[in-house]
Amino acid sequence: MAPPPEAGATAAAEPSKPLNELFSSLPTTIFEVMSKLAMEHASVNLGQGFPDAEGPEAMKQIASASMYDFHNQYPSLLGVPELRQAVAAHSEREQGILVDWATETLITVGATEGLASAFLGLINPGDEVIMFDPMYDSYTSMAKRSGAVIVPVRLRLPDFSVPLEELAAAVTPRTKMIMINTPHNPSGKVFTRPELEAIAELCVRHDLIALSDEVYEHLVFGGAAHVSLRSLPGMKERCVRLGSAGKTFSFTAWKVGWMTGPARLLNPIVKAHQFLVFTVPSSLQRAVAHGLDKEADFYHSLGPSLEAKRRYLEAELTALGFDCLPAHGAYFLVADFQRPGEDDADFAKRLTAEGGVTTIPISGFYVGPRPPTHLVRFCYCKEDIKLQAAVERLKAYVGPGGKGAPQ
Fold first, then answer.
1. What pTM does this model have?
2. Under 8 Å CB-to-CB from 381, ≥6 apart: which residues?
């Protein structure tokens, strides 16, 4: 125990020099606000983007056994060979993209670390990066930390289609990268082949790099098909592709991701990865290798399972007066709550506190000015009993005679 201060002594002053301007200035996110409110009011939380169900039991058993069957010291910073080989095989099998596992793969601490390493490894201060608005919130912070200038291009409502003329106009001599996320968070949009072909044409014509976040690649339904940007002509040598065991196998706590891309682009990314985290737990890597090689039935079943949940929730919301926007991927449903004069943040907070159901206001995902404020996001990768409980609370609150019913 430290001795008490002497009489008359003054308390030590806090450091006064400025902290990192980017991260110290970031406000509390709407995601933190809504999660705290959900806990305070014991709501049914359909805001958090993770599934209730977990992945294959065999993967958990392999992860556990690997701690005893193999050493527990640093593995290769690139990842264990078994997983890198499995990632390459998965790429060829699912998207027809040939990958040299020895030089064109990297295992990361989730896709989020992969994104951070990509920005740090590829971007110089002042480089412009085109991103589609709305977007996953980590993109801009890590890109800005690398010195990037973010150029948002807003997807068009109601189907979040790509405004191709606006996209082409956003390219300048300073543009280095176009970043895409398909299937898309927060909308659930699956980029169409014509949209991807237009993006690829711009990349080739203007000598741009593409960073393609495809963590939801197996969460597709409704007749849509996931097409990797890297599979298109001219893109194999200028596109880096990201995947995630958290999304593919519903093991979000494991934080195992992977990247594939040409060696020239991966090399500086590997350097950034080396100094950020160095490596990834080897026992989890071996379990994910098994999953990619042997558990295709699991990840191929995700789309049909999620489609059934979406249909249920969409029908119930529509009956309650919500206008559900179309989507064919991921596990997010965006809905217009039809309350003129009330913005999405206030509606989401009221729905949590009074109605007992938590959503996320879509405006929190936008980077550009004047975001839409009439939409909220529901996450439906939850147990059926939880979705049913949420629907019952919604009926009681916003249904006929409910306290939150439209006036």
1. 0.94
2. 49, 50, 51, 52, 53, 306, 309, 331
